């Protein structure tokens, strides 16, 4: 069918619809205006006399009272089940066994839970947080096991190095470990052992500072790590490698540790930190 024929079809269909509406309107408005022819009168009809029957006497009605049913008592009050109080916390010096079991019960990625150091867990964590908040790293209080292989570099020339491209692989299991359990499970564990965390932090001698304040400071230090393009040159004036760029070398040790991650790993790590930062509040 051509466009012209189609247009004509719609045109005529529209006219038909308008005509139908007009016809219905006329019928509705003028249906009572036409003259009505009255029919011829019918001859009168004589109806037979109707004799009312004599009503019969109604039988007496005896009302019987319904039998009393069992007494209705009030609905029993709903009894709330008693909540089991949480088990008492162990002493700080004896907390490794319970905390280790609770930690390993979380849904960590298979094969990675063994990265946790299970000795002096609470004290090591508190000391690590305290040092990171000040930009430092501490070697004597490990929270996690060290990577199996050492730090890898690639030599460019005399006393010129860069971090090896595959060095970031050594940190991947640790990131996957942290990403494998939702933050709410970790925070629930923290709430359970908060008194022991506070006790261990009090041993460090900060009367005007709480552990949670220190933890927020540590997260802030790590999140403030600048974004640096891969390939920053290193030098080795002694046993340790240092950044050739003085501005990078002046960064806190904790931030320089973050720079060892690849840019993608740094983004994942900082996303985790922001999740915990929001959960802890200000």
From TrEMBL:
Record InterPro entries: DUF3014
Alphabetized Pfam families for the sequence: DUF3014
Membrane-spanning parts: 12-30
Keywords: Membrane, Transmembrane, Transmembrane helix
Protein name per UniProt: DUF3014 domain-containing protein
Highest taxon above the source species: Bacteria
Lineage: Bacteria, Pseudomonadati, Pseudomonadota, Gammaproteobacteria, Alteromonadales
Region (Disordered): 50-87
């Amino acid at each position: 069918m051509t466009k012209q024929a189609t247009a004509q079809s719609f045109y005529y269909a529209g006219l038909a619809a308008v005509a139908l509406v007009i016809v219905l309107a006329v019928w509705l408005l003028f249906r009572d205006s036409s003259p009505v022819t009255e029919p011829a009168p019918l001859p009168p009809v004589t109806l037979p006399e109707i004799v009312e029957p004599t009503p019969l006497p109604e039988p007496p009605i005896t009302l019987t009272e319904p039998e009393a049913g069992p007494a209705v008592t009030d609905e029993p009050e709903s009894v709330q089940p008693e909540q089991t109080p949480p088990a008492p916390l162990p002493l700080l010096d004896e907390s490794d066994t319970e905390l280790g079991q609770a930690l390993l019960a979380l849904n960590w990625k298979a094969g990675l839970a063994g990265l946790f150091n299970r000795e002096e867990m609470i004290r090591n964590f508190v000391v690590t947080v305290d040092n990171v908040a000040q930009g430092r790293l501490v070697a004597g209080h490990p929270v996690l096991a060290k990577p199996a292989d050492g730090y890898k570099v690639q030599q460019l020339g005399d006393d010129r190095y860069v971090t090896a491209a595959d060095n970031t692989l050594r940190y991947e299991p640790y990131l996957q470990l942290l990403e494998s359990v939702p933050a709410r499970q970790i925070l629930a564990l923290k709430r359970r052992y908060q008194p022991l965390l506070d006790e261990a932090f009090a041993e460090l001698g900060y009367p005007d500072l709480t552990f949670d304040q220190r933890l927020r400071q540590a997260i802030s230090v790590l999140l403030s790590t600048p974004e640096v393009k891969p390939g920053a040159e290193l030098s080795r004036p002694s046993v340790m490698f240092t950044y050739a760029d003085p501005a990078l070398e002046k960064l806190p040790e904790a931030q320089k540790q973050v720079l060892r991650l690849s840019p993608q790993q740094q983004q994942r790590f900082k996303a985790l930190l922001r999740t915990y930062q929001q959960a802890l509040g200000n």
